Amino acid sequence: MEDIVNGRCGWCGKDELYIKYHDEVWGKLVDDDRILFEFLILEGAQAGLSWITILRKREGYRKAFHNFDVEKVTLMTDEDVERLTKFDGIVKNRMKIESAITNARLFMGIQKEFGSFYNYTLSFFPNNQPIVNNYNSLSEIPATSPESDAMSKDMKKRGFKFFGSTICYAHLQAAGFVNDHFLDYICRKNK
Questions:
Q1: Which stretches does DSSP call E strand in 77-163?
Q2: Catalytic-residue membership of 43
Q3: Catalytic residue among 43, 120, 147, 169
Q4: Which site in 19, 87, 131, 155 is 20 to 30 Å from 145, CA atoms measured?
Q5: Would the pTM of this model clear 0.85, i.e. be above it?
Q6: Residue 131 β-bridge partners
Q7: Residue 51 annotated among the catalytic residues of the structure
Q8: How many other C-beta atoms can be found within 10 angstroms of the C-beta atom of residue 13?
Q9: Is residue 21 annotated as part of the catalytic site, yes or no?
Q10: pLDDT tens digits for 56-83?
């Protein structure tokens, strides 16, 4: 896989959905807790799967999890879990579905403690600021970082599921807390 294809990360290839996600979402700083909750749920669902699989089911996840309204997700029941294990719009893994509901409750606890999940996330970064990296190839981009290690460790201690350091790093990249776009990427030039 090439590092840069048509001014984009090589990982998005020619798939239109991937290209749109790369150009419009990935690496742009998100300070909206609803969107951060969406990314948290989607990244957890992705564990062990390809990102394109989850991206193709994103609308299904919106339907399944009340458009990522965290308060509504916390009220979901065992009957909802059972229903979602039969819903083709998402990955029908019971543990991942249950973890989304558990993680919603824990997410709200963090919001109460820190004022927002955004504030909580920034608390793991030097000077509470996002990081902009200057890598020259995909092989330089790490799978984890000190920030993702610390955040993941804290979240696991709080009871979060499906949020190890690699998933956390992907979450931080997607939500723009870590910008790993190369300088030559379209997304860096359009800022």
A1: 131-132
A2: yes
A3: 43
A4: 19
A5: yes
A6: 178
A7: yes
A8: 15
A9: yes
A10: 999 999 999 999 999 999 999 999 999 9
